[in-house]
Amino acid sequence: MADINIEVTDTIDITDVTCPITFVKSKVAIEELEEGEVLQIHLNSGEPLENVPRSLAEEGHEVLKKVDNGDGTWELYVKRGAD
Amino acid sequence: MEIMVYIAASLRSFTDRVPRIELSAKSVREALDVLTDRYPEAVKGFFDETGDLRHFISIYVNDRDIRSLKGIATKLSDGDELWLIPAIAGGAQKEGEEAPAKKPAGGSVISAERMKAVTIEEKQIERYSNHLQLKEISIKGQKRIMAGKVLIAGLGALGGVVAERLAAAGVGTIGLADFDEVKLPNLQTQTIHSTRDIDRPKASAARDRLKKLNPYVSSVLHQEKLTGDNIEEVVEAYDLVVDATDNFVSRYLVNDACVLHGIPEVFGAMYQFEGFVTVFAPGGPCYRCLYPAPPPVGIVPTCAAAGVMNALPAIIGGLMATEVLKLLSGSGEVLIGRAITLDAWNLQYHAVQTVKDSGCAVCSVHPVISTAMDIDYEDFCGLKENPEEEPIATIEPEELARRIAEEEPITIIDVREPHERAIRKFPGTIAIPIGQLARRQNELDPDTDTVFVCREGKRSILAIRTLREAGYEGPMFSLKGGLEAAAQIIFPNEGAWL
């Protein structure tokens, strides 16, 4: 269930891949954005939901919100940090 | 002062194969005196005719080049380590400058514009995921790697390891320079080539291997022999050059062209169990700073004549590939102004400082060399006959075979090293390694023709020169082309020479 209050610049779906490609794809996608823009990531609960937000935060990006879709997948909103 | 002297493998022929020697000395000069007292053969190896330390030997006290200390007058303290490393030498007593640069100006050799022009495809995100995960490389570093153009000079054991690593890493363009063909003895160390590649050009065999490893990489073949006339136009097209060649002519050729065009060069060399890696880049020392002149022909056996332990290229080539990736991605501390030496068999690892030579012929403020086209590299490396020197008489293999068959009086001296003699025995000869010739000249009969044999016909020439210098006046001949050329003729009933 997408959050309509957040303006999203790009979206990616990483439900078809596993660690570490989940993180790598998210990282490549967010670095394509300008500072302050938001990436919406469609991901599975469990390991991806635990690790991807943490890893992106370590890279200097800001996790704005996590939304449960109720079907085992989540939407993650991440704001791109500075280089 | 109790100190430890470490002898690089290629100098151990002068020290009865001993890799390290504990001795007592107050200065470097005294330590060398103790060494040459103990091993008189070493005098010829270490010092030239005028008694100066030979230009192809560098001496380090701990990790400092004695040129940045007080030369051979440098004092020693208890527990000091003295490292004798050949073929990295400098103007004997010249004041050297410390190399300040640790990485080229601007970080990466790849500009931001070229980095930005690269897009990473969906499939490449997975293929390159290891580097993308690393903060030190990440997306920008990987894009720079993908934009990079790297020339690999020499596709033997080291060049092969570097080529495979760089291809898998995703380097955009890899130049493959080698004019040679794959032969059976290559396969134990040169794992980029396969059994089915025997007799194929090394550059094509390497290209095929790289294509299988990573279809995104484009290979450019350079199968012509690199010379002073073509080297500059070849290197010009690349961001970086990897020198994985196996002879002094190519080493100087590649160095000079890289210095003249401001291209960083990753340098690696091996000898038996030992490896040496460094990076030459603008601001730091170059190959000529370390080795103003090559060793006299024959004093240090070539890699091919000495053998290489098969796992060593993976270590040394791996270090070289690491330096390339750092230079391309613009991160990490690059091996500029320093060198790593490794003796894998005796587990001696050492990082030394290398020193820029302010009087260097090619990279100093007032260089003597302005283009590689002006230099006769073969002559510089002593591979051309000196017209002033008395010519060396040679004997054809057929003639030697006939004289042996007809039992004519003749003395044959085998100057090969013991391990080479073990591979191919030559019965009826006297075995005298080059280092012992002068001392053992009384084993020769000046009234009988003496034929000197070695593997390629180069050391036999050196042997004759050595004996002439030592005052021997009997008739001497060098077996033309060495046993490599003569084995089939002299031993027609045996298998091919390995």
Quick one: how many beta strands of chain A?
4
Number of domains of chain A: 1
Within the CATH hierarchy, at the fold level, what is the topology of the largest domain in chain B? Answer: Rossmann fold
Number of self-contained structural domains of chain B: 3
The geometry of chain A reads as: globular
Radius of gyration of chain B (Å): 24 Å
CATH architecture of the largest domain in chain B: 3-Layer(aba) Sandwich
DSSP strand (E) fraction of chain B?
Answer: 15-25%
Largest inter-chain contact set: A-B, 10 and 9 residues
**Spatial separation of the terminal alpha carbons of chain B:** 47 Å
Overall CATH class of the largest domain in chain B: Alpha Beta
Question: What is this entry, summarized?
Answer:
The complex is a heterodimer of chains A (83) and B (498). Chain A has two helices and four strands; from the N terminus they run E-H-E-H-E-E.
Describe this structure in words.
The complex is a heterodimer of chains A (83) and B (498). Chain A has 83 residues and is α+β, with helices and mostly antiparallel strands. Chain A has one domain (10-79): Translation Initiation Factor IF3 (2-Layer Sandwich), CATH 3.30.110. Chain A has two helices and four strands; from the N terminus they run E-H-E-H-E-E. Chain A is globular and about 30 Å long. Chain B has 498 residues and is an alpha/beta fold. Chain B folds into three domains: 2-86, Ubiquitin-like (UB roll), CATH 3.10.20.30; 112-380, Rossmann fold (3-Layer(aba) Sandwich); 394-490, Rhodanese-like domain (Oxidized Rhodanese, domain 1, 3-Layer(aba) Sandwich), CATH 3.40.250.10. In chain B, 30% of the residues lie in helices and 18% in strands. In chain B, the strands form four sheets. In chain B, strands 9-8-7-10-11-12-13-14 form an eight-stranded mixed sheet, with helices on both faces. In chain B, strand 10, helix 10 and strand 11 form a beta-alpha-beta unit. In chain B, helix 7 packs across helix 13 and helix 15 (397-405) crosses helix 18 (482-490). Chain B starts with a strand and ends in an 8-residue tail after the last helix. Chains A and B meet through helix 1 of A and helix 5 of B.
